[in-house]
Amino acid sequence: GIGKEIAFAFAEAGAKGVLCADIKDDAATKIAKESKGLAASPKFEAVGVAVDIANAHSVQSMVDVALKKFGRIDCLVNAAGVPVVPFHMTSEEDFRRVFGVNARGSFLLSKAIIHVVSAMAFGAGPCKVLYITAQHALLGITRASGKLSKHDSTTTQW
């Protein structure tokens, strides 16, 4: 729901438009349509697209749609996530899926992005080993790519 709320906030704030993306095309289209109803500007445009952020070709297709529709990308917010299961019930497929979305997906989107990192990136908790590990990976990508502000207290200065 974080990505949906961000799309709504952009619409309400007067953005030119938003591209809403989800692994499910119908979910992305629904959010795009709902954001139009909240738009501060009558010229606001919204489009929904299906994307698998763990797949480079899918990410590039999403970028192509954004560029065709809006001419440029000013901001890209990655708020993708997947449900997780307790560690003792975790399969190799669960591991692949969580890392595909949270780590590989973030890597593929990292050229022009705002990373939404869970508080779990800074700690740990029970029954969320995969999610926490993937969030730590996302924090590492964010730090290593220089995406954190120099004024951010979590940034390690080298």
TrEMBL record:
GO molecular function terms attached to this record: oxidoreductase activity
Keyword field: Oxidoreductase
Keyword hit for Chloroplast: no
Pfam families to which the protein is assigned, alphabetical: adh_short
Domain of life of the native organism: Eukaryota
Oxidoreductase among keywords: yes
Record family assignment: Belongs to the short-chain dehydrogenases/reductases (SDR) family.
Name the record gives this protein: NAD(P)-binding protein
Organism per entry: Amniculicola lignicola CBS 123094
